[in-house]
Each structure stands twice: as C-alpha cells, then as structure tokens.
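Sample intake sheet
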Amino acid sequence: MGKYFGTDGFRGEANEVLTVEHAFKVGRYLGWYFGQERKARVVIGKDTRRSSYMFEYALAAGLTASGADAYLLHVTTTPSVSYVTRTEDFDCGIMISASHNPYYDNGIKVINGKGHKIEAEVEEKIEAYIDGESSELPLAKKEDIGRTVDYAAGRNRYIGHLISLATRSFKDMKIGLDCSNGSAFAIAKSVYDALGAKTYVINNEPDGTNINTNCGSTHIEVLQAFVKEKGLDVGFAYDGDADRCIAVDENGNIVDGDLILYVCGKYLKEQGRLNGDTIVTTIMSNLGLYKACDKVGLKYEKTAVGDKYVYENMVRNNFSLGGEQSGHVIFSKHATTGDGILTSLMLMEVIMEKKQTLGKLTEEVKIYPQLLKNVRVANKQTARENPEVSKAVEAVAEALGDDGRILVRESGTEPVIRVMVEAATDELCAKYVDQVISVIKAEGLVVS
C-alpha cells in the first residue's frame, strides 16, 4: 500500500485526510498521464455523500486543466463506473465513494480502461505528484483545455445491461430493497420494477449525511425486520456504493456472501457454467461453507482478505465466481468487480429457475458461530510471531480439531492483530478467543 492509496483507493475523512487539493491534483495527474498522446477521456461517478459533489468538481477541474474531457455519470454505483469505463473506451474511470464508511469519510478509486483497479505504479506516480516529488505539469491552453460532459446516458446503459441479464420476469415476486441511502437509490428500483417485481424500497432518500446510517448491508437487521413485517419473498441490502449485497430470506434470516457463493456456485455447477467447478473465497469464509461444498463436490480456493485478491485469483485461473463474506461477489462473465445489484439478480435467477425459496436453497449450509476480536499492539509482526502466542494458537487449533478453526492475522491498515475463532457454540468461540488474547497481553505486546 502507498502513502495515500490503500487496497481500495485514497480514502479518509473529507477535508481532513482527503482534501479538495488532493482531488484536484489526482485529476491533474490523470488528465496529463492519459493525455500525453491524445486527448484523454475520463468518466466520473459519485455516491450520495455531501462531500462527493465537492470532490467531483475538484477532479473535473484538475482533469480539464490538464486537457482531458471529464464525463459525469453523477450519482451512480462503483460497478457502473467499471462497466462504462471498459465498454465505452474510456482511458480510466473515477469513483468518488468511501463505500460502507460513515458519511463524513470519502474516497477516490481509480479504475483502468479494462474496468480493474488502477495499477499500483500509476498510484505511486500520483502520490509523488501530490507530494511535489515530480515536476509540475503543463496546463492546457486555448482549444486544448478539456470540457465536462453530462453523461447520465452511460448510467442508463448500465441499467439496461442489468435488466438484460435477467432470465425471466419477476412477476408476483415481492422483493425488498435496502438502498442504504446511497448509490443504489438511483438504479436498483428501476431494475426490479422493469423486471415486473412488486418492489418494496427502504432507505432510498439520501440527504448527503445519511448514507450507511443504520441501514444497508452493514445494518442488515433493518431489512430483516422489514421483510418479516411485509411478508416479502426475499430482501436485498446494498452498501453505500452498491458493490456489496447481503440478502435476507423469506423468514428474515441473513444470507451473507458465503451463502450467496454456495447457492450460486452450486447452481452454476449444475448448469455446467462454473469454470473448474470452483468458487474463490477468502480465508475469512465460514467453515460451514467449506463443509457444505465438500458434500456437493464444489471445489474452492482461499485468498487473502480483499476482493482485489479474489479477483486476481479468478483471472489467473479463469474461475467464474468468487467473493467475500461481506457481500462482495464477483461474477466474472458479467463484471470485473463486486456488484451488489448484479449479485441480487443472479440470486433471483436461482430462486426463479429452481422454484425454491432462498431459505430452502441455503438450508444445507450449517454456519458455524464465529467471533472476531481486535487487539491493538505495538508491532503486528512481533505479536503474531511471538513463540508463546504461536503455542497458544496451536493449542486452540488442536482442541478444535475438525469442528472449528482459529485464524490470527495482521490488519492491513491498523496496528491491530485480529483473532478469529469458529466453533460449535458461541461459548467455545469466546473461550478460545479470550485464551489467545490473554497470552498476547501476558507477553506485554498490547498497547492501550
């Protein structure tokens, strides 16, 4: 990770960590970088945060000052920016969003012409320019100055793309959508209405400060209650930029990314459409997922935490389906990134084609109780490799055997060690997590 750009772009509190000056310079560099041989074309999308408008204008100013044309999708989803960038010959795309973070945070995610996260070496060059470590860039003059273009039509084409993926009408299906007061508000209902569903929408009135606030995929209990109250067939909750989806079945039970991977993976395998009969997961996926996969001959790969690593594995091995427990799910035939609305449509395909409820489709998977606690330490590597800590972890792993697991890993962004245990009961999870944390504390590795 670089100084400013992490695993998911340049993110932080607006005008505190990420400022308008930063955004202007990102635009200046990208406009120059992609415009060295021809006039660059860059497409910009944003979520509903109040600061997203400020950053949109700053980025557009930087791009046009360097001679690039900036195409504005306005409020839209991260996957729609990826789709438009790769299908309409843009040099790059920019999404302004901090995903599931609070409204006062924001972020700048740069997407290359293939719809993937921009290359690390380009991010490094942007960072050097921001810090004044590279020479000043020329300003465009006269007719070479760029222009901004209203490009809402690009978002509408993405909506049409989603609608075209449905295999049949959703007529008479009662479907709940929690749009998290975020990017999905401008898209999700339009898609489901067009497909004939009886659509019930909540958290669909963004005001700039309510994105992700007690709603969406990070507060799934809201949709659970709504589905039960209205007697809906299924519910889907998205996060702020709609690249995640968590579902709720007809009984109000949570269907997270692991269960979505199982339902869709099993279905695609039955259809002969799952490359290598394999799904790609991260090391945080639940043990219950793997046990269920083993029973139906569904193979799986495990990567480090992060949809970036999931997608890299999928590309390397030509796999069709992968994702995270958090609801980032990638269907490589249709997208190069997690797409919450697309994920919900793919789940609906299984429900409609199998003529079964989501509750029925997931009942084969026994999800193990899971507990994760974070421990703030002076040095992550020293704490993880401490001999006494290692011994404690091995003792827990031996005690759990095949009926659970322990995972101790370093946070990618904080001075934190994450201790996670899966076991047959919540009590066992708590017992073993606390057992390891007590050793970390006894070894003097914790800081307050």
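Comment: Residues 46 and 96 are 4 Å apart (CA to CA). Residues 426-442 form the longest helix (17 residues).
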